[in-house]
Amino acid sequence: MRTYLIRRLLTFIPSMLVVYTLVFVMIHATPGNPWDTGDKPFPPQVLRNLEAKYHFNDPVWKQYVDYLGSIVTEFDFGPSYKRGITANEVIARFLPVSIQLGLTAFVIAFIAGIILGTVSAIAHNTWLDRLAMFGAVVGISTPTYVVITILIVTLAVQLRLVPTGGWGGILDRRIIIPALALALGPTASIARYARSSLLDILRLDYIRTARGKGLRERVIHVRHALPNAMIPVVTVAAVSLADLITGSFFVESIYQIPGIGRYFVSTVQDKDYPVLMAVTLMYAAVIWLTNFVVDVLYATLDPRIRLS
After folding, report:
1. Which domains are delineated in the chain?
2. What pTM does this model have?
3. Which end of the chain has fewer beta carbons closer than 10 Å to its terminal beta carbon, N or C?
């Protein structure tokens, strides 16, 4: 098991190198430069001075090597071309907001998904099962920007329970709407996987043996069936966590949350290449880390993985 985890850790470096190369190639394949996106173009001499200052005139291979060297040796992604701050400062300022929002939505989705999936599996083929699965279909098929719009109109405009936008941290009531909007889709996915996995487990021989020994149904479900049903659920939950942290573009933009997702959209529009590179690599690192955590959780939930 230790050897396997070490091998997985060693895949981090080539994975990040591949992402860096792909983003670098796409950036340089895009026509134009970061300073030709405004309504009023810069004079030719000013553009030449800017390109010389930020080494846009260097050969592509030299830009690739120099920028990669600054990231590896100094963890420096360079200055933002449009904001007057560095790309590192952008990450430090806006990433914590997205992490707080994503983790809050994930906790809601995981708890609600496990409860709904478990109840649906136990009440298989009843009206409660059908109602829960209908809600799961609605949650999966409804886009996030539609959900948050409905929540804003309902909770903020009509009922006036929360403000229509802004951010005040995870303890502020303004987190209710964006967290619920982000959590709806993952809740539905986790519920469906939990229901399907638990139904398969409840049909196995050792569950029938436990019932034959006279164990209570609650003990059978909680101690014997649910832990073994969690392996596929952990997989989809990890993917959902990565999506919640890295994919909250619409929610942050609509609800005016100063997160990295909202900033990433404007970065692409402005061709702010250092920030674009920093945010993309950060997203890739988050996704890689969640996959690594899943591997560790597999070994925790299933002793057979440790033995193999």
Report:
1. 92-307 (1.10.3720.10)
2. 0.81
3. C
